[in-house]
Write a structure and sequence with these properties.
The protein has nine helices and seven strands; from the N terminus they run E-H-E-H-E-H-E-H-H-E-H-E-H-E-H-H. It is of the alpha/beta class.
Length: about 250
């Protein structure tokens, strides 16, 4: 029996970083977690580490149609998913001198198409059941434009707006929708960055614990750490030249 109100959860991008951490966080609290990712060896390691509440699920969210159908089928197989966390995401440098179309396409396929397919796969069934919780892991980068990150910012901004709009549509059906906006977190994706360019960098476990608690509270929007989210919030109210002067320092 789950110590939380969720019995079942699907979490994508569970092979590393925040996704792996969230899968372990919920599984350790009694939730049956379907941990989805491409790397089966990493998922097997997660199951070995955490235990029977982890069920590995090989899934490549960059294939939107296949992802939608797999999530839809999984919802039927398990008798209804209570929680879906679209966490899988990629971020790559898009500064003009290093621009590669393949990088932009990959971010769109995963961060936009993949996340949307993940969240929508079980939504019709959730509407019928009149229960469920959809969570999208966006980013503080989805709140304001940052240098060298045009495609990443745009894809995360899409996810934020998508979730905000879906929340309006499903409120009358008793479905919760949460948009999570982390700042810089130690992970495989940020390992290639210069630590000096990542303000208020958080340890993975710290970030996971904050996110898990926000999800359980069913926060509609959760942006953290407060120091960085406050800077971004204040910058959004400034005239464009002043805002750009601040944001160019936040890679």
């Amino acid at each position: 029996m789950s110590s939380l109100s969720y019995k079942t959860a699907l979490i994508t991008g569970a092979s590393s970083g925040l996704g792996r951490g969230l899968a372990a966080w919920f599984a350790s609290r009694g939730v049956k977690v379907y941990a989805a990712a491409r790397r089966e060896d990493a998922l097997a390691s997660l199951k070995s580490e955490v235990g029977e509440n982890i069920t590995p699920l090989k899934l490549d969210v960059s294939d939107g149609e296949a992802t939608f159908e797999r999530v839809k089928a999984l919802d039927v197989e398990v008798g209804g998913l209570d929680l879906i966390i679209a966490n899988a995401g990629v971020g790559e440098d898009t500064r003009v001198k290093r621009f590669k179309w393949e990088s932009v396409q990959r971010m769109i396929d995963v961060n936009v198409t993949g996340a949307s397919a993940t969240l929508l796969g079980a939504l019709p069934a959730m509407v019928e059941r009149k229960r469920g919780h959809l969570v999208g892991i966006s980013s503080l980068a989805g709140l304001l434009p940052l240098p060298a990150s045009s495609a990443y910012c745009a894809t995360k901004s899409y996810l934020r707006m998508f979730l905000d709009s879906v929340r309006i549509d499903v409120a009358k059906y008793g479905i919760d929708v949460s948009s999570i906006h982390p700042g810089f977190v130690k992970s495989e994706m940020t390992a290639k960055n210069n630590p000096k360019e990542m303000a208020f960098l958080l340890e993975t476990d710290d970030a996971v614990n904050r996110m898990g608690k926000a999800i359980v509270r069913r926060d509609e929007v959760f942006a953290f750490p407060w120091q960085l989210s406050s800077i971004i919030g204040a910058a959004s109210a400034l005239p464009r030249p002043a805002r750009q002067a601040i944001l160019k320092r936040l890679r």
